[in-house]
Design goal:
By secondary structure, this protein is α+β, with helices and mostly antiparallel strands. The chain has one domain (about 5-85): Alpha-Beta Plaits (2-Layer Sandwich). Helix content is about 40%, strand content about 30%. It has a three-stranded antiparallel sheet. Strand 2 (about 40-45) and strand 3 (about 50-55) form a beta hairpin. Helix 1 (about 20-30) packs across helix 2. The longest helix has 24 residues, at about 60-85. The protein is globular, with a radius of gyration of 13 Å. The model has no long low-confidence stretch (mean pLDDT about 85).
């Protein structure tokens, strides 16, 4: 990930920990949204993997809207996977 200071004034980070398969599904769900508005990475850890999403904007209102959109997508996919019986 590049430096958040290079991207804008307001920055937030969303981190999800679980299995690689679910992390990849979650990431795929937000890619069509607006891939230029965030950076992401999936990193191996002792607990599985961590999906980290870094969102930045020069305006807080834009940052909030982007975070809201991303969280809505992630929540929908996570809920769908739970219904299908996928282990998160």
């Amino acid at each position: 990930m590049s430096s958040a200071k290079d991207m804008g004034d307001a920055v937030t980070r969303v981190v999800w920990t679980g299995s690689r398969e679910v992390a990849e599904n979650l990431l795929e769900s937000i890619m069509p949204d607006d891939p230029e508005s965030f950076e992401s990475e999936i990193v191996e850890s002792e607990d599985g993997v961590s999906l980290t999403i870094l969102i930045s904007s020069s305006e807080l209102s834009e940052l909030r809207a982007t975070v809201d959109d991303i969280l809505a997508c992630l929540s929908a996919v996570e809920g769908s996977l739970e219904v299908l019986g996928e282990e998160l």
